[in-house]
């Protein structure tokens, strides 16, 4: 078995941290992998989607957000998702994670108008996460 020096381990840890920070998206913006149908260019006066997380979700759950089937972020305690949307029809999905009860995602269909802001709150209602 080959032994690595301290510097190799430090370099490996630094690389993993950098990859983790760039690939992990908090709820402040849209995810880097969002498709053109979801995120509109900033110069086109795109619509804005805001999803807040209600306190009744507790502290051990995250809310995963998808738009048109594309994962755009996850919101934890005290966080809010904010991201642009292109005009047209979109489907916004929200589901609690960990999803130990295998609940289906909640979905909202939006007909997005340029320049408008769409605000929802992800909350528990009747044993599932809903967008109010």
Give a description of the structure:
The chain is mainly beta and 132 residues long. The chain has one domain: Domain of unknown function DUF5300 (Immunoglobulin-like, Sandwich), CATH 2.60.40. The chain has one helix at 6-23; strands spanning 47-53, 62-67, 70-75, 80-85, 88-97, 106-112, 117-125, 128-131. The strands form two sheets. Strands 4-1-7-8 form a four-stranded mixed sheet, with no helix packed on it. A four-stranded antiparallel sheet has the order 3-2-5-6, with no helix packed on it.
Topology-level CATH name: Immunoglobulin-like
Mind telling me the C-alpha Rg?
A: 18 Å
Based on secondary structure, the structural category is mainly beta
The profile of the biggest β sheet is: 4 strands, mixed
- What is the string of helix and strand elements? HEEEEEEEE
| Total discrete domains | 1
Q: In which order are the strands of the major sheet placed? A: 4-1-7-8
Shape: globular
Number of strands: 8
The CATH homologous superfamily corresponds to Domain of unknown function DUF5300
Q: Enumerate the spans where pLDDT stays under 50 for 5 or more consecutive residues.
A: 6-12, 14-37
The CATH architecture comes to: Sandwich
Per CATH, the class reads Mainly Beta
Strand proportion = 35-45%
Mean pLDDT: 76
Q: Determine the fraction of residues in helical runs and give it as a percent range.
A: 10-25%
Give me the number of helical elements: 1
**What is the CA–CA distance across the termini?**
57 Å
């Amino acid at each position: 078995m080959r032994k690595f020096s301290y510097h190799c381990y430090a370099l490996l840890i630094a690389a993993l941290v950098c990859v983790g920070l760039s690939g992990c998206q908090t709820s402040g913006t849209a995810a880097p992998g969002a498709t053109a149908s979801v995120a509109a260019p900033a110069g086109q006066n795109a619509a804005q989607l805001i999803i807040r997380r209600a306190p009744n979700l507790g502290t051990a759950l995250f809310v995963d957000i998808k738009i048109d089937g594309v994962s755009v972020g996850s919101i934890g305690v005290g966080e809010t998702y904010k991201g642009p949307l292109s005009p047209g029809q979109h489907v916004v999905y929200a589901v609690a994670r960990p999803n130990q009860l295998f609940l289906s995602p909640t979905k909202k269909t939006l007909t997005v108008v340029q320049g408008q802001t769409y605000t929802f709150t992800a909350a528990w209602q009747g044993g599932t996460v809903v967008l109010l």
